[in-house]
Structure formats: structure tokens, C-alpha cells
Amino acid sequence: MYDAQTISKAMQIFYYLLQNGELSIDDNKELYRSYNENENIVNLVNIYGVECGCQIERYNGIIYLLPNDDNEFIGFSKAELKKILCKSGATDKDYYLSQFVILSILNTFYNSNGRTSKSRSFIKFGDFINLISENLKTASEYENVESLENTSGIAVYNVWEAWEALKGSDTKTTSKTTKEGFLRGIIKFLDQQKLIEFIEEDDMIKPTPKLDNFMDWNILNRSNYDNIIKAFEEVGITL
Hints:
By secondary structure, the chain is mainly alpha-helical. Helices cover 54% and strands 10% of the residues.
């Protein structure tokens, strides 16, 4: 049994996490200490998370609310992501291209086998465009690539075609019908989620401490890491 004060404090913490996605001592000292000093509050917050299709995790002293993969209420559905990240009337090829871009961002910053998986602190936007083009060209030329399909039945070759169908531009366009605008849209979305910092005046892409924590403590656990390595190796890309 939990007393009313404990239930109330746990609900305050969970509501804060719903609003902000994370809680540190610098964000709200009272709530943070209540969570860390009361096991009953921890248990209740975890129960609220399970009932709402989420996990509550603490990495490097920060408490995070992580929606489960199938949580489309707190997270994003495929249809929502396609609308946000891709051009109007986008097909599945365009959607999977956007996911390829996101995986490439992760691989760009996190491919170290040292104490931390982080391997670099930033990349210029122009260099990232070239990286995507090179990776997709490698994938499209891989032996028997047209017979290699992911679990959604989308051939990697078709993803490369979706990239090549986008126009090139020398300007800082936001049009998702161009390579530059398509990538800027994805990067700005990740910026809004506090995973990437996009410094537009310097055309620089930087990972945030939040993404650093997710990669080291959640995404790149041994099982998830092996799955990512396998996915890239299947299309001829060595990480």
C-alpha cells in the first residue's frame, strides 16, 4: 500500500517526464531527489510507465521516459514519421530512405569500440550529404543487392533510387524534394527531439548528451549493436 503523498509525488514525476521526456537534478531538484530517495516512488513511476507503454530508465544521473516501439501515442507511428520527414505523397521507399539517413547519423558518431561508442563530435552538413550518397551508392552496387530485402520487403536498391530522385541544390533549401532539404528536415526533427544539435550558421551537426547516453546505455547494448551491424553488412557497408 502507498500513502497519498507518495502517490501524488510519483504522479508529479511521471507527468513531468511526459511533458519533458527527461528529468535531471538541474531540471527540478525537488522531483529528482524525491525519485532518488524513495523506493516506493520509483516503483510507482515504473508502474505508471508500464501502464502507458513506456520504460523509465536512468543513464548517467538523468531519468528518461522511453516509449516502447509500438507506442504511437507518446512516440510516432510510421505514417506520422512519413508525413514529418518525407515529401508530400511519399512512398515506403521515401520512408525507408529517411530511416537509412537516421541510421547513418548514428553510425557517423558512434562506431567506436572504446570506453564509449562515440567516435566524433561533429560533422559538416555538406560532408554528411556526401556520406549518404557514398553509402547508398555502395549499397546499390553491392552484389545481388536487388535480391536483398529488409523485413519490410523494400529492396535497398529502391531506397537508392528514392535518393537519386531527389534534386540537388546549392542553396540552403528546406524543400523535401531536394537532397539538401530532405536531410535538413530529418536533422531538424532530431534537433527538436533533443538528439541532435544543428548549428545552422556553421552548417554543423552535433550529437547531444541525451543521444550519447541512449547510444551507450540503451541502443548499443550487445544485442541491438549486433542487429545494426548485421543490417549494414547485408548491404555491403562495413561499420
